[in-house]
Amino acid sequence: PVQRKVPRGGGPSGPPQSTGQGFNSAGARASLSPADGQSRQIRVNDRRIDLGQRFVVLVTIDGLGDENAVAFSLKFDSESLSFVRARLADGMDGAILLTNEKASQDGQVGLALAMPPGTTLPAGPKALVELEFASMSSAPAARSDIRVVDYPVRRDVVSATADRLGASFAGATITLSPATDASLGGALAQG
Question: How far is residue 78's CA from residue 58's CA, in Å, rounded to a whole number?
Answer without folding.
Answer: 19
